[in-house]
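ARCHIVE CARD
CATEGORY: sequence design from structure
SOURCE FIELD: tokenized fold
FIELD CONTENT:
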């Protein structure tokens, strides 16, 4: 695989999650022998939709409950299928996780977030499995 800078968009409104998640993503990219990714953060629904629409992303992590009463499901409804394939849902919202399972969207419960659970999902999206 060529060594290009990967663009990652984290859609997460809680610094308690976004900061450790950013570190975890960087560790996973290092383990995969990929350059440190360019990671951008969106905290709200509209900001996420705008960022996804304006710049190509290689990987998107998406929370369920977002700032300003936003929700990840609304972000999914506004983005195209190509971006769905690049998205990993990381949420504690049981309804959202069930929606993802039914619609074959990669999802992970926040309480199970770890390198062991996230690594296979990232490898699948990046075509490294």
């Amino acid at each position: 695989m060529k060594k290009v800078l990967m663009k990652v968009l984290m859609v997460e409104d809680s610094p308690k999650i976004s900061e450790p998640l950013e570190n975890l993503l960087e560790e996973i990219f290092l383990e995969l022998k990929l350059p440190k990714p360019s990671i951008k953060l969106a905290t709200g629904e509209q900001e996420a939709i705008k960022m996804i629409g304006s710049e190509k992303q290689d990987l998107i992590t998406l929370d369920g409950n977002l700032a300003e009463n936003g929700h990840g499901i609304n972000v999914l409804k506004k983005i195209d299928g190509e971006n769905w394939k690049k998205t990993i849902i990381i949420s504690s919202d049981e309804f959202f996780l069930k929606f993802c399972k039914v619609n074959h969207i990669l999802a992970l419960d926040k309480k199970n977030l770890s390198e062991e659970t996230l690594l296979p999902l990232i490898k699948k999206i990046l075509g490294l499995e």
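CARD ANNOTATION: Strands lie at 7-11, 38-42, 59-62, 65-66, 70-71, 87-91, 107-109. The chain has a mean pLDDT of 92.
SHELF: design records, drawer C
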